[in-house]
Amino acid sequence: MNAVKSDNQALIRQSNIELLRIIAMVIIVAHHFAVHGGFDFPIETVAPNRLWIQFLALGGKIGVNIFVLISGYFLIDAKSLKKVKVLKLWLQIFTYSALYYVIFVLAGLKSFHIRDLIVNFFPITFSRWWFASSYFVLYLLSPFINRFLASLDKKLFLRLLIIFAVIWCIISMVTDQIFRGHELLWFIYLYSLGGYIRHFDPVQKLQGKTYILWSVVFVFFTWLSAVILDFIGTEIPIFGQHATFFYEMQSLPVIVISVGLFIGFSKIDIGCRRIINIISSTTFGVYLIHDNKYIRSFIWDRVFNNAAYADSDLLILYSLYVISSVYICCTLIELLRIRLFENRYMGLVNRVASKIDPFKICPRIK
């Protein structure tokens, strides 16, 4: 979110990056529709529905990369952790994890076990959502990361990013081997890259629309790589089994698309749109709601029965209906949580945060 001063000096959130957050979450939901929907297409044939599901699957890792790039862009100059934000984020994750478990147990959809109770009441420790756990740790580490990055000049900063890119993008893509601990380390790379873009603005010449257009072109060609591998796979099955090889979040095409979209949206000006900002504020909640391990199969298998449409001529229309329905419902649920719960307990959170000192662990960055 960009910030500008109004006549009364109040900070106003600009909506360009907020719109990008919404788009990123929409394509993440679309990705989950595809990868968790139970679709099992035969490798021997290349059907339009298979290609459509592969197209939807492409967006997930792009969306993840975009969210972390945004965080690096806006947090790179933070001098210390915001204790209120740490508590607020933890409570949001805890609420959905514990609430889902209690509901599923009371509804008889899940048996009660002490271990499950512990796991769901400590969702970050036990990675109930891999992204939430990795992002929470990234945020805790952000003051240290900021202090380290602030000590680098532009040349050293760029060298660091190149080393990261070679190891996690190029080598991983060529060898098809992902380095251990890659999720958090990859997030640190994306965070640093977002910070580099914020500090040095390395791409000043082209307009935002140009970056967005080229990103769309890269999306098409990345999807086309899957189509080509599909056709090769009809003769050599191993290629069909790895048709989405270039879809991983650390692959070079995906990182190019992610950075291109981020830069593109950061350079466009759509002013402050209140409805966009409100919807954007729910995006993390949308993720927590629809991708919980209990609710995931319930939504895609039992409610919408995605796989039943694998061979249907209506798959494209049905997928658009399901994706939009899930997104809208999750947005409304998150808005309800904010209104009924978060707005009521934030006063207590602020008081607790004011009495906590352990987060003051990093000297001010000069």
Offer a quick outline of the entry.
With 366 residues, this protein is mostly helical.
Describe this structure in words.
This protein is mainly alpha-helical and 366 residues long. The protein is 69% helix and 2% strand. It contains 15 helices and two strands. α3 crosses α11 (252-267). The protein is globular. The two termini are 24 Å apart. The model is unreliable at 1-11 and 359-366 (pLDDT under 50).
Order of helices and strands: EEHHHHHHHHHHHHHHH
The mean pLDDT is 87
Widest sheet, order of strands:
1-2
Low-confidence stretches: 1-11, 359-366
Number of strands: 2
Question: What is the overall number of helices?
Answer: 15
Helical percentage: 55-70%
> Structural class of the helix and strand makeup?
mainly alpha
Principal-axis shape: globular
Q: What percent of residues are in strands?
A: under 5%
Strand and helix layout:
Layout: E1 3-5, E2 11-13, H1 16-35, H2 48-57, H3 59-75, H4 83-106, H5 114-121, H6 130-150, H7 154-175, H8 182-200, H9 208-233, H10 237-241, H11 252-267, H12 274-280, H13 283-290, H14 293-303, H15 315-354
Antiparallel strand pairs: 1-2
Short key terms for the protein model shown above:
15 helices, mainly alpha, 366 residues
